[in-house]
Amino acid sequence: MATQRTQTDDTSTALATARRQLERAAAETDVNEQVVERLKHPSKLLRVAVPLERDDGSVEVFEGYRAQHDDVRGPYKGGLRYHPHVTADECIGLSMWMTWKCAVIDIPFGGAKGGVVVDPTDLSPEEKERLTRRFAEEIRDFVGPTTDIPAPDMGTDAQTMAWFMDAYSMQEGETVPGVVTGKPRVIGGSYGREEAPGRSVAIVTRAAAEYYDVSLDGLRVAVQGYGSVGANAARCLDDWGADVVAVSDVNGAIHDPDGLDTWAVPSHEEEPEAVTTCDAPETISSSAILELDVDVLVPAAVGNVLTASNAPDVQADFVVEGANGPTTAAADEIFDERGVPVVPDILANAGGVAVSYFEWLQHINRHSWSAERVDEELESKMLSAWDAVVEAAEARDVTWRVAAYIVALSRIAEAKDTRGLWP
Ligand code: NAD
Fold it and tell me: Model-level pTM greater than 0.90?
């Protein structure tokens, strides 16, 4: 995963942005004010010390967090990140986004996020394993397959989830694959989990093209970031007939107005930062890709790349957010004024948590789904979510982003009203 600050504009934290977005959506609905007030706060925040014996025998203590935002619709769900910028507020803000993401695609989970304040590139594989096992032990009472289910995030991966699951299972006295998702397939991971966020971006791009009555065949797409999300989105769209005319990584972008062969360009995982070494008629900067004359722009690298300074120059007919938080609030307003629709991250890249849910279901049912079934179920989930967002946008005459929040908030509020307040 790319290293990234998760602030969605220069001055506000993930938590402030998440609260602002909640208020904006609440203002457009008749959701009970008390429910909105409850949703501004996480249900629980756990802070732990994670001592690690380094390879040289010294001991270092790292700080870890798990924020659980809301579980009215089902167990908490969200990633664990290892990054030096992890903070309690960041975990809370990101846990709120997970609540909306799960609700907008209508899976029975709530939102959580956690992490350890550590630079994972400073850790040897053995140190990372020891840190993960100790962190799993420190938050063990907090997580579980029916309470809170972590997943990989920045700085963590399928192997990290395997260590976490093993540490948890050892203490429980039984194998509990459902305590995490995003595991390797050999211990209960699902087909299609890795490709899912990019695939959902492609599914939603196709749905948006249909909505605007433009053909996917020959649709000119530019994708910033060629990692898990960007490369998988680009390749799906390429396979479905679109012309992916530009892709980029941290070093720059390649541009071919006739369309690139996306399978010939190595993804971040296949060969890190190799995009600009590929043959193409033109090489441009990674920021210039955002201003290309294309039909669709997919920012799929890091947050805060579409800002007040470049939003006026974006020429795409619409934007589909692959990354989390690529558009600042100021840029969002400019796009709204200019009539450039933005399909929001909480909808577009929600395929990751959707397939995490499928992985969890496979564990609960002691059953393994085929890759085809995963793709079909993902498509169905994403298209239902898209339809719900279209309905809300048309009914209230709001942007796709506000509509997605309205869908999520209405579902959560209805569940809260139905369950009532205990005691
Ligand atoms: P990744 O590490 O696999 O790939 C990131 C890509 O972005 C790489 O090609 C890298 O070179 C490029 N990049 C990094 N900084 C850049 C910059 N400043 N300008 C241009 N390119 C840059 O990461 P990923 O997993 O694809 O995640 C990308 C985004 O999608 C992040 O915002 C992440 O939070 C979000 N996301 C990821 C998942 C997931 O499961 N992988 C799910 C939902 C959302």
Answer: yes
